[in-house]
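REVIEWER CHECKLIST
Item 1: Sequence provided? yes
Item 2: Single chain? yes
Item 3: Sequence as submitted:
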Amino acid sequence: MNIQHRGTEDAEFFTAEEKKEFFTKYRLLLNSLHPFLEKEDVGKMKALMQRAISPDCYGRDRNGINGLLRNIDTALIAATEIGLKRAPAVALLLYRPVMKNLISLQEVEKIFDSEITGLIQLLLRTSALYARNTAVHSENFHHLLFSFAEDVRVILLMIADRLCLMRMGRRLTREDDRLRLASEASYLYAPLAHRLGLYAIKSELEDLSLKYIDPAQFDYIKKKLNETKRSRDAYIEEFITPLKQRLQESGLHFDIKGRTKSIHSINNKLKKQKIEFEGIYDLFAIRIVLDSLPEREKAECWYVYSIITDMYQPNPNRMKDWISIPKTNGYESLHITVMGPQKRWVEVQIRTRRMDEVAEKGLAAHWKYKGLKEDKGLDEFLASVRTSLEEKDSTPMDLMKDFRMNLYKDEIYVFTPSGELIKLPQGATVLDFAFAIHTGLGSKCVSAKVNGRNVQIKHVLQSGDTVSVVTSPNQLPKVDWLNIVVTSKARVRIKQALREESAKSAEFAKETLQRRFKNKKIEVDEAVLMRYIKKRGFKTVTDFYVEIAGERLDPNVVIDEYLELVRKGTETHDPADVRSAGEFIATPSALPEEKAGGKDVLIIDRNLTGIDYSLAKCCNPIFGDEIFGFVSTHGIRVHRKDCRNRAEMERRFGYRMIDAKWTGEATNAYPATLRVTGRDDIGIVTNITSVISKEAGVNLRSLNIDSNDGIFQGNFTVMINSTGALTALSKKIQNVKGVKSVVRLGGY
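Item 4: Structure as written out by the authors:
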C-alpha cells in the first residue's frame, strides 16, 4: 500500500516505528490471505483505503493507539491465529471508513459483495454498542450477544480485537480502561474462546487479565515459575528420556515435550485449594503428538497409552477419554495421570498432529480439515444462544447467566434407549435431558429410568447413563423446575410454558369473575376495578387474576370489596391506599448511585483513599457496615459482607474482590430498605411513617406495601447516615403496635 504521497500528513499519522511495523504486518497479512483472495481484491483494497488514511478515520484513541495499526494487528490475529479468511479480513479493514462515512456500504457491495457488507454492518452494530456501554448489567449487552449469535465470525473478530488490545495493555495510559478491558476479557471473551476451541488464545486472555487486575499475584507466580524452571526441566527430561526411547523402538513418529500450566490456571488452583505455590504438584503436563494417518489415529493413541501405563503406574480416577467421544467444541485428546520418578504424579496428553491443531486453533483447524458447515456442535451452541436471547422477560444478568451456561466447561455424554448420544453440561438432570430431546417431552416429564433404575426428575446424570423418560399427560411445568435444570434451553422452555399456563389461568379467572358480576346484575366500572386491583397491591392485572385462579383470592370477596369502593364514590384517601407501590416519591431502583462525599471516607485495599467508587444496589451498604470492594467494568463497587451475591462473586470472580472499610465521620445519607411485617391494620402505615418522620436526619424515600390474609408487609426505603442510626430506627418501628418483625433487606 503506497502512502508516501501524503507527505507531512503521513508523518503525523504514523511515527517512523509505527510505519515500519504497519508495512511488516500488512505484508504478513497479505501472505496469509493470498490463497483465499480474488484476483482484484488487493488493488480494490488499496484504492479504498488510500481514501481512508487520515487521522479523522484511523486517528489515535484516548490512549494514543493508532487505529489503522490496531486494525492490521487484529486482522493478522484473525487470519494467522484463528484462521479467518477473505470476507472477515476485508470487512474488518473497511468497517471504520464506512463508519466515518468516507466509503458507503453500497460502494463496498458494488466493489466486493454482500457477504462483506453484511459483516461490516454487524461490526458497526457492535462498535456502536461498545460506544454506548456494554457492561453485563446494561441492556445493550443483550444486543451485543445477539450480534455475536448472528454470525460466528463476528465473535471471532471481536475475540481477535480483544486479544490485540490486551497485548497492547502497556500502552493503555488509563487505569480504568485497563481494568474494564481485563474484566471483559475474563468474564466474556476467554470463555467464548474456550467454547470455540481456541485454547491458546483463551489461556493468553486469562493470563493478561490477571496481569492487569492483580499484577502483584501475576508477578509472584511468574517469579516462582522462573525460580523452579531448572528443576522442572530436569524432571521433565528424566520422565521423557526412557519414554522417548520406548516409543522410537515401536516405530512411531512423534514429538514429545513438557508444557507448563498457565499462570491463570495456577492462580485458580492456589485459591481453590488454599495452598502455597510449593504445594502444587502438577505444574506441567507431558504432551505426545503423533504423526498418524487418519485411519490409524485412534489405534496409535491407544497404543501409546499402553506403552506409558506399562512403564508408569496410572491413576484410573484421573483418566479422560476425549478420543472416543470428542468434546462439543471438537477437542480430542487422551489424558492420563501416572506415577513418575520420585513418586510424583504426572499428567500425559496423547493426541495426533490433527488433534493438536484443532486443540490450539479451534475453528481454524475445523475449517482446514472438515469445513465450517460440518461443525454441528457450533450450530447447536449458536442456536442455544439465540434461544436464550429470544426470552423476552430475561434481564441482562439472566442473559449473561444463560449465555455462560452455553459455554460449557465440562460435558457428560448420556444415551437414549435407542442408543442416540446426547451431550449435556456437567450437573445436568433428568429434566435437562428430557428438554434436550423435545420441549413436549420435558413439559410432561414426571420421572425417568436411568440404567433401569427409577429416579426423580432432579436426579443428576453421569456420563454413560442410559435414560428413559417417563411422562404423564396431566403433568405441567412448575416454578421450582427452574431450580432443577442447568441448561438454558430447559430454563427458557419452562419459563415460556409457565407464562402460557399463567395466561390461560388468568383468562379463565377473568371469565369466572365477569360471570359472577353478571349473575349479581352488577355492571363493572373498569376504572374502579383497576383502582381496586392497585389498592390490593397487585403489580399487574394478570397477577390479580392468577390469584383468583389459584383460589388464593375469593371472587365473592372481590365483589364485596369492589362494591364498597364504588359506594365510597371517588378514589379514597385511605393512608394505605395513598401509600401503595409507585405512588410515593420514588422506588429504590430509581435512586441514583451514591458517590463518595462528605466527611465519611472509604479505605480501599488497606490504605488507598480518594478512589472513585459506587455503592452496590443489591445490598445498599451504609456507613458502619462491614464491606468489601469489587472491581467491575464501571470501577469499584462497594458491597456489604453479608451481601446475598457475595458467594457467587467469590466463586466466579474472587480475584476481583478487594478489602474496604469505612473511616471518618458518618455525615452522608445512604439508602437502606427495611421490610416490616405485622398485623393488617388500616393505621399501621401511618404510625410507621410517623416514627420515621420524627427521626432526626432520616428521610423516607419510598414505600411499597401489600396485605394478604390479615398479614401486612411493607418495604420502607429511608435515607440514613449509619448502621447505628438504622438500628435505632428499627427498634422504634418494632415498638409500633401490630408490628411483628423489622428486617433490613440486601443481605442473606
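Item 5: Key structural point noted by reviewer: Residues 2-11, 134-140, 371-375, 570-599 have pLDDT under 50 and may be disordered.
Item 6: Recommendation: ____
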